[in-house]
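Handoff note, outgoing to incoming analyst
You'll be picking up this chain. Sequence as last confirmed:
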Amino acid sequence: MREEEWQNGPNSPKMIHYFIKFEVKGENVEFRIWRKKKYQSFILGQEGILEYQIKKKHNVFIDFTSES
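Most recent structure output, in case you need it:
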């Protein structure tokens, strides 16, 4: 889990982008999480069903449903 501060220009408001890494088929795959509330709901080591879409430049997070 990580947060990245981003600003479009010196007079633009600062934004925080949220990222989560999942292990998918033995590989670590990082996704940007758009909602802070969803980002805060993740627990390290949690197992479940990950839904995502593969794009040319990056993978897009859709949802994660915990098994517990």
